[in-house]
UniProtKB/TrEMBL annotation:
Pfam families: HIT (PF01230). It comes from Serinus canaria. One of its GO terms (molecular function) is catalytic activity. The active site is at 73 (tele-amp-histidine intermediate). This is Histidine triad nucleotide-binding protein 1-like. It catalyses: adenosine 5'-phosphoramidate + H2O = NH4(+) + AMP. InterPro entries: Histidine_triad_HIT (IPR001310), HIT-like (IPR011146), HIT-like_sf (IPR036265). Gene3D superfamilies: HIT-like (3.30.428.10). Residues 2-81 form the HIT domain. Belongs to the HINT family. The lineage of its organism: Eukaryota, Metazoa, Chordata, Craniata, Vertebrata.
Length: 87
């Protein structure tokens, strides 16, 4: 787990599987358990950090989806009120 040492507001960290998957669309059926595990690990980290009032997990894919790192990772945000739409 990577944790922002100098957060501007709230909490932000990444959960990244050891197995490199470039995009969600490439994961296929065999990636379902891995992606589910990444989400469960993210929730465990949220619990450890005490983010009891909610959090957001995000997966970006492709240029229009805002993907800038071409490896599946799960950004997790919390510790403050998150608006919608994001950004």
């Amino acid at each position: 787990m990577f944790h922002d040492l100098f957060p501007l507001d709230g909490t932000f960290f990444l959960v990244m599987p050891k197995e490199p998957i470039i995009e969600l669309s490439e994961a296929g059926g065999s990636g379902a358990s891995l992606l589910g595990h990444v989400m469960i690990v993210g929730e465990m980290c949220v619990a450890h950090l005490g983010l009891t009032n909610g959090f957001r997990m995000v997966v970006d894919e492709g240029p229009e989806g805002g993907q800038s790192v071409y490896r599946i990772h799960l950004p997790v945000l919390g510790g403050r009120r998150l608006g919608w739409p994001p950004g």
